[in-house]
Each structure stands twice: as C-alpha cells, then as structure tokens.
Design a protein that fits this description.
Layout: E1 4-10, H1 38-45, E2 55-59, H2 63-72, E3 79-83, H3 88-101, E4 108-113, H4 121-136, E5 140-145, E6 156-159, E7 172-178, H5 183-192, E8 195-205, H6 206-216, H7 218-229, E9 232-234, E10 237-239, H8 242-245, H9 253-258, E11 264-269, H10 279-286, E12 292-294, E13 297-300, E14 306-309, E15 316-319, E16 324-328, E17 333-337, H11 344-353, E18 364-367, E19 370-378, E20 381-388, E21 396-398, E22 402-410, E23 413-417, E24 420-424, E25 429-432, E26 438-441, E27 448-456, E28 465-468
Parallel strand pairs: 1-2, 1-4, 2-3, 3-10, 5-11, 12-14, 13-15, 14-16
Antiparallel strand pairs: 4-8, 5-8, 6-7, 6-8, 7-11, 9-10, 16-17, 18-19, 19-20, 20-27, 21-28, 22-25, 22-27, 23-24, 23-26
Helix pairs in contact: 3-6, 3-7, 6-7
Keywords: GTP-binding, Isomerase, Nucleotide-binding, Nucleotidyltransferase, Transferase
Catalytic activity: alpha-D-mannose 1-phosphate + GTP + H(+) = GDP-alpha-D-mannose + diphosphate
Organism: Rubellimicrobium roseum
Length: about 475
C-alpha cells in the first residue's frame, strides 16, 4: 500500500474557545480533552505503518511549541514550514505540497487541520486507506463527515445520491459545495441524506494538486513556489520568504481550487468527529449525564452546563444552572449561555477594541526554553514563575529599566552575572543588578523552576537587550 505524507495545518487562533484559546496560544496546542493537546492527538492519529513523518505548517510564534509537542509525543517531523503571516489554507497547503513534491512528485498527501477531534483513530485510518486507490488514480479526495445534527457553523458537501447507512467502501461523486446554511436549510440537508459536513481533509497526489493549482490558481501557485525557493533554514525550521509570501492571495483551498476542479470525489466518514469550534462542541464531547466538568469544579442541581477551571487554587461552583458555560482562567472568566457559544468570537473582538491584554495574550507565555507566568504585579514590581526545560538556556541579556531577584524552588540553575558563572540550587537566590549582562540555564535532567521578582520603573517584555541566543531570536 502507498505511503501517505501527512500535512498538519496549525496556524489558526481558535477565538471561539476564548479564554482558554487565544492568539498567542491557540486551541490546537491546548489539552482540551485530556493529557494530549489536539495537535499531538492529530499527529498521533496520522502516524504508524501507513504514514510517513508529518509536514507541519505553522506560524513563527508557534514554531517551538509545535516542535516541543511533537518531541514529547515521540514524533519527528519531516519538515516544519514557517508561514511569515497567515494567508489562509490555499497557500499553506500548496507550500506543503510543493515541499513534499520536491522529493517525490507523485507522493500521496493527506492534509488535515490539527485541531479536530476524531476519537476512533483506527476507524479514521481505515477510511483514509479506502480512499487511496481513488487518489492514486488522479482524483482529489475530500472527506465528508456524516452529520448527526443540523449545523449552521459548517459548510457541506452535496452527494449525487443519498448516503447508504452502511459502511462506505470507496469515495463517491461530488455534486456541489454548499456554503454554511441557515437553520431551516441545514435541517433539510441533514434529512435528505445527500449532504455531509465539509471536514477540510484532503487526500491527493502532489502532482495532481500542483496541476490543479496551475490551472485554477496560477498566481497563488507562483507566489508560493517563489517563497519556497527563497526559504531559509535555521534550527530545523524552513522559513518561507516573507516578502514573496506576502504577495500570495489570501484564499482558502476550497475557493482557490476545490470548487473549480472537476476531479473531486468525496470519501464519507461515519465515525465521531468534531472541529471543537466552540464551547458547545466541547460540552458535547465531554458531557456525562448532561454536565461537563473539568478542573476544580462543583455542580449542584445543574443541567446542561460546562464548568471548567484552569486557575490554580480557584474553584468554579455552579448552583441551579441550566445550559451555562463557565470557564475560569487566572486572568479572565467567561460565563455564557451554551446557545450563544458562537458569539464568543465577538467578545474577543470587543476586548481587543478596548485594548484588553486578555483578548489575545495567554497568561502563560511559552518560549523555546520553557514558559513563564505572572503571579503578582503592582507599582514598580512583578512576580513571575519561570520553568526552564532540561538542557535549555535563556538568552544572554540585560535590562535598561529593571533589576531581578531569582529564587530557585526546584532543580538547579547555572547563572551568569557579568563575568561570574555559578550554580544556584533549591532554596538559594541570586540578585541581578540593573544593566548586568546575565543568563539562566538548566544543566539538569528535570525541569528547573524559579520565582523571579522584578523591580524597576518599567517591567515590559520588550526591555531586553540580547547578546547571544541559541534560538536565533533578535
């Protein structure tokens, strides 16, 4: 059987799952349904004897998060392509296709969003395998999800005939793409048995997709080809040329190619699936007897609720609630009716307009060396918890406006302050004077945790002068 090259797309922002998902740390990297992130679960689902190593397309801000999560899952990617800016799925998919085609023009690719939930992984893999002969024959196979309810938030794929309730052995002819319908139209389409949800999943030969792009989206293909040709490589990442990439039309693969191509087939998938697009979807995936609880939560006489606490030491309690979503983060709390879950995106836009930091910035700031979060802030001081991965090091740096006190609470830190280098162990501290050139490293095999107390006139993250950085940051 042919080997499939998975392409994982993970550049979205997932604003409808605010406050857990934000621009700086979107939903695909969050552990929404268990210990694994959605991205890790997607990578695991597309691994095994049927698949080659994945090609990942992501944003610059997420490159180290993606690499770390893959490493933690024991998966080594074939490539990590870095988009200089989001240009929708058309450019992203063509970049991955061209990259794989450079090694094998007839390679078989499976494009998948990295934030979908497909609990029956083997059933999905079997469905993909059933579509391989059709894709090898020159068809672009799109996967349609058998709907279990009318849904106005999805586009649909219309089949030429009604779907048989039994197992589908091979892809079927596609009659038309259907835009997101109103409620009445969605109900009618689900009832007629000829409509599937558009899952945004595609299986195709690389040369077939490139040929389709050459006919239907030549300007998009040319820009992506040139950007890939001008790509630079550092630390294992492939950075697409930003100036040329910016000229690529921002368009979805559906509008650019799929809706114009005449060689499309639909492979129905009849198992469980969710794009986890809002909190109502999370509730559907996690509810037990109508109630979905996560973290430190208590529900008393509640019905149809989702209660979630992501704030250490904070308990969310619901009494006599019905169809309510309540999500508590350390810096923001969402309370909404479950029927209004789609409107959370508008809330984010309103917060952004008001200049609220919580609109886009996650309370835990992930960096290539680990992460930090603010524990307390006041006039001329800030207290942070900092976690440094084993073997990782922060940049050699200095600050113009603040001094720092570091207290190690777990592990051992190797600390540089000007010309002095020393080890600082648990319950020991070190002072970093204003203007001192300094660095923090974790020489151990376990995460190192410290508390940092900053004092000074200005405490912003942009008050950093970097002299050396192993992660090639400016």
């Amino acid at each position: 059987m042919a080997t499939i090259h998975p392409v994982l797309l993970c550049g979205g922002s997932g604003t409808r799952l605010w406050p857990l998902s934000r621009k700086s740390y979107p939903k695909q990297f969050a552990a929404l349904l268990g210990e694994e992130s959605l991205f890790q679960a997607s990578a695991q689902r597309l691994s095994g004897s049927l698949f080659a190593a994945p090609t990942v397309v992501t944003a610059d801000a997420f490159r180290f998060i993606a690499a770390e999560q893959l490493s933690n899952s024991g998966i080594r990617p074939e490539a990590l392509l870095i988009e200089p800016e989001g240009r929708d799925t058309g450019a992203a998919i063509l970049a991955a296709t061209l990259h794989v085609a450079a090694q094998d023009p007839e390679a078989l690719l499976l494009v998948a969003p990295s934030d979908h939930v497909i609990p029956e992984a083997q059933r999905f893999r079997d469905t993909v395998a059933a579509a391989i002969p059709t894709a090898l024959a020159g068809q672009i196979v799109t996967f349609g999800i058998a709907p279990d309810r009318p849904e106005t938030g999805y586009g649909y794929l219309e089949l030429e005939t009604a779907l048989d309730a039994g197992t589908v052995a091979e892809p079927l002819p596609l009659a038309a793409f259907v835009e997101k319908p109103n409620a009445a139209r969605a109900a009618a389409m689900v009832a007629d048995g000829r409509h599937l949800w558009n899952g945004g999943l595609f299986l195709f030969r690389a040369d077939v997709m490139i040929a389709a792009a050459r006919v239907h989206a030549p300007s998009l293909l040319a820009a992506v080809e040139a950007s890939l040709a001008g790509a630079t490589r550092d630390l294992g990442f492939c950075r697409l040329d930003p100036a040329i990439w910016a000229t690529a039309p921002a368009i979805s693969i559906d509008y650019a190619i799929m809706e114009k191509a005449d060689n499309l087939s639909v492979m129905p998938y009849t198992g469980r699936w969710s794009d986890l697009g809002d909190w109502a979807a999370v509730w559907r995936e996690t509810e037990e007897d109508g109630t979905a609880l996560s973290g430190a939560t208590t529900a008393i006489d509640c019905e149809g609720v989702l209660l979630r606490s992501e704030a250490p030491g904070q308990r969310v309690v619901g009494i006599g609630l019905q169809d309510i979503v309540a999500v508590a983060m350390p810096d923001a709390v969402l309370v909404a009716h479950r029927d209004r879950a789609q409107d959370v995106k508008a809330v984010v836009a309103s917060l952004k307009k008001d200049g609220a930091r919580q609109a886009e910035t996650f309370p835990r700031d992930h960096r290539p060396w680990g992460w930090f979060e603010s524990l307390a802030m006041g006039d001329r001081f800030q207290v942070k918890r900092i976690v440094v991965h084993p073997g990782a090091a922060l940049s050699l740096q200095s600050h113009h406006h603040r001094s720092e006190h570091w207290i190690v609470v777990q592990g051992t830190a190797r600390v540089t302050v000007n010309e002095e280098v020393k080890l600082v162990t648990e319950n020991q501290s070190v002072y970093i004077p204003l203007g001192a050139v300094h660095r923090m490293e974790n020489p151990g095999k376990l995460p190192m945790v410290l508390i940092e107390v900053q004092t000074g006139a200005y405490l912003g993250e942009d008050d950093i002068v970097r002299y050396e950085d192993v992660y090639a940051r400016q």
